[in-house]
Structures are given as structure tokens and as C-alpha cells.
Specification:
Elements (H helix, E strand, L loop, with lengths): L2 H10 L11 H11 L3 E7 L2 E8 L5 E7 L25 E3 L7 H17 L6 E7 L10 H10 L6 E4 L11 E3 L1 E2 L1 E10 L3 E2 L9 H14 L13 E9 L6 E2 L2 E10 L5 H14 L7 E7 L2 E2 L4 H14 L4 E3 L7 H4 L5 E4 L13 E3 L1 H18 L2
Parallel strand pairs: 3-5, 3-6, 6-17, 7-16
Antiparallel strand pairs: 1-2, 2-5, 4-18, 8-15, 9-13, 9-14, 10-12, 11-13
Bound molecules: zinc ion.
Length: 378
């Protein structure tokens, strides 16, 4: 059996449900130390993180990812034990983390071992940033490691994240950015009353519906080459006592924007507050929570190396996408790093029977090595 698949299976057998690392990072740290890395285990709160560097000067190329996994859910929904790392006769590697993202982490470690053995005097520095809190609150994980690095004056130049970016076939898609996600809660206060005496009441729901209708109809932008148009969705709407003859005095809504770099949290807020005022809803009635700002890596060394690496190994070219949910790239990109996410197929992530083709682990490892060769050899 090939080394990357063997390591992926060893990691899957460690049940590292967020934030428990279950020994994954210790195992990886030993392997990296043997490959000449200076390894630091950073525990923030209840979260284990690992930062490792090889080389002492030059731009930092970093492999980033997480060792934690989401809970498996009911075991009886699985064809094979989620922590047994079973490979079936059809060649599927089953297990929680098989796609998201222990196979990528294993592929990265093995690619690094081979690359360092073949190119002991490579240019630049090679680093690993791993956390056990990507699937959870993500407070004491990647973000905290970046703060710690920043305090030491260190910065990542090129970052390859192993999140499962592929759609139908390995490396058919790489993510070069992510949309931003902004949440708001709107709470409108009016005056409750009898439906037969509307002049004596102030219907909070009517005002809220006016605002929601304006926001639904608003055309935020048309998107651009990297992003689809910004979208607005109402996720929750609550008002009313249940009685048919009572005008509601309070109404509230929860809403979310997925937005491109053509917008900012501030621009979305300004438009919303202006509509709100028109319906007698003051700015204080709206609570905002930005869960991630949008980011995009434009054409440059990392995108070129990624494309060339995939082309050399598979003969195909990955499509670049900003689709899907957020990732820890939202913390890394704002530090000035070029960020690309490239990993296995994401069809079964967070599901029962999470699985990928077992042979993709070694293929992914070869792609990672080919990308390293394009970034770390002058
Ligand atoms: Zn993930």
C-alpha cells in the first residue's frame, strides 16, 4: 500500500472530533521533524495547533489544514465504521475525515517528505499550519496561530489549503477565494392592537415586510469574473400571537448575505439602513454579525504553480471557483498571502459514508509535490 494512503488511514483511525486532536498532530509532528522541520505544538484554549518550518530564509510556502472532523452521526447510518478507515473492494476509502480533510493532510506530509529528500537545498521555506478547530468555533485555531506568527513578524507568502475543493473528479476545481458571509437580525417594535382598530395600532410586521421586500428586490451587483452576484436571503421571520384578530407589536427577521469583493459589510449595511429608515426602522433595530469577509487570490505565482502541477500529474486544468461555504482561508488571505484550496472530491463531506477513491490520496500527494517543485525550486 502506498505511503499517503497508509498515513491517511492512520489519521482517520484517530477519532479527532472537534476540538480533540486525538494524537493526529503528534504523529504528523514526528514525521515532519524527521524531514528536518522545526516543529512547534501550540495549544490555545482547548485547541491543539501545529506550526512547523523547514529552511531558514526566503518566502514561506505553507500547507494548511485541519486535523479535526465533524461527529460521525448515527453509526448505523454508515456502511463501514467511520473510524476504521476501511477500503472496500471497489476502491473507496471510507471514514470521517476521508474527504474533509485527513487524506489531504496525509498527502501533504508525504509530498513534503519526498520533496525534501529529493531537494534538500530547495529555495525558500516550507511550512505547515494545522489546527484541530476548523469545524468548530475557529477562534483558538488558525486565527490564533496567525496572531502568534504576526507577533513574531512572520507571514505566509503562498498557502495551499487541502480543503476538499474537487467536484466530480480529483482536482477538477480549485478554490481561489470565498464569498463573504454577513448576518443581520432585525427586530421591529410597533404597537399591538385589534385588527378592527388599525388606527390605534402600529403593525410591526407590515414595516418589517416592507424592508424585506425592498432587500429581496434590490440588485446588489452583477458579480464579476471571480464571483457570482451577491445574494440576499431571509432565513427566519417571526411575528404574531397566533390569534387572528391581533395586530403584532413586535416582528423580527434573520437574514444573510453571501457577497463578493464588490461589496463590503459596510456597503451592505448602509443600503439596508437606508431602506430601514424609509419604513420607520431605526439602525439600532438591526444587529450585525460578520462571519467572514470575502477574499480572492488573483492570477499570480501560486495559481500558476497549481495549474501547472495538476496539468503535469493529470493532464487536466482545474477550474477556479469561489463557491461553497467559508474556510480558514478567510483568516489567512487578509495577512497578504496568496491562498489556493485544492483537495479531494467534496460530494460526501459531513455525511454518513464519507468516502473518496483510495487512489486519489497518492495522486493528490503527487500533485502537491509538483506544486512545491514549481514554488521552491528556482
Ligand atoms: Zn474541512
Amino acid at each position: 500500500m502506498q505511503a499517503p494512503l497508509e498515513l491517511a488511514r492512520e489519521l482517520i483511525r484517530r477519532p479527532s472530533v472537534t476540538p480533540d486532536d486525538a494524537g493526529c498532530q503528534a504523529l504528523i509532528g514526528e514525521r515532519l521533524a524527521r524531514a528536518g522541520f522545526h516543529v512547534e505544538h501550540l495549544r490555545f484554549g482547548s485547541v491543539d495547533n501545529l506550526w512547523a518550518v523547514a529552511g531558514d530564509h526566503g518566502p514561506i510556502t505553507c500547507f494548511a489544514g485541519h486535523t479535526d472532523v465533524v461527529p460521525p452521526g448515527p453509526i448505523e447510518d454508515w456502511t463501514h465504521d467511520p473510524f476504521a478507515a476501511h477500503v472496500d473492494e471497489a476502491g473507496w476509502l471510507y471514514g470521517r475525515g476521508a474527504a474533509d480533510m485527513k487524506s489531504s493532510v496525509a498527502a501533504m506530509v508525504c509530498a513534503t517528505e519526498r520533496f525534501r529528500a529529493a531537494q534538500p537545498n530547495h529555495a525558500g521555506r516550507l511550512a505547515f499550519l494545522l489546527t484541530s478547530d476548523e469545524e468548530g468555533p475557529a477562534v483558538d485555531g488558525t486565527r490564533a496561530v496567525l496572531d502568534w506568527l504576526g507577533a513574531r513578524g512572520q507571514r505566509i507568502d503562498h498557502c495551499l489549503i487541502g480543503e476538499p475543493s474537487s467536484d466530480l473528479a480529483l482536482a477538477d476545481t480549485a478554490k481561489h477565494g470565498r464569498r463573504g458571509s454577513l448576518n443581520a437580525r432585525v427586530r421591529v417594535r410597533g404597537t399591538q392592537g385589534h385588527v378592527a382598530y388599525p388606527h390605534k395600532a402600529d403593525n410591526a410586521l407590515h414595516r418589517l415586510l416592507g424592508l424585506m421586500a425592498d432587500l429581496v428586490a434590490h440588485r446588489w451587483d452583477d458579480g464579476d469574473a471571480s464571483f457570482p452576484p451577491t445574494s440576499f436571503q431571509v432565513s427566519n421571520l417571526n411575528a404574531g400571537t397566533g390569534a387572528e384578530n391581533v395586530i403584532p407589536g413586535v416582528a423580527d427577521a434573520a437574514v444573510n448575505w453571501r457577497f463578493s469583493t464588490l461589496q463590503s459589510a459596510e456597503s451592505l449595511r448602509a443600503v439596508t439602513e437606508a431602506y430601514g429608515e424609509a419604513h420607520g426602522i431605526p439602525p439600532e433595530a438591526i444587529d450585525w454579525h460578520l462571519s467572514g469577509a470575502p477574499f480572492v487570490t488573483t492570477e499570480g505565482r501560486l495559481i500558476q504553480a497549481t495549474r501547472a502541477g495538476v496539468q503535469a500529474c493529470l493532464g487536466t486544468t482545474p477550474a477556479l471557483s469561489t463557491g461553497g461555504g467559508t474556510s480558514d482561508g478567510r483568516f489567512i488571505a487578509p495577512t497578504g498571502a496568496e491562498v489556493i484550496e485544492l483537495g479531494p472530491c467534496n460530494q460526501t463531506i459531513h455525511q454518513a459514508d464519507e468516502r473518496i477513491p483510495a487512489r486519489d490520496v497518492a495522486r493528490l500527494s503527487e500533485i502537491y509535490e509538483a506544486i512545491l517543485a514549481r514554488l521552491l525550486i528556482d
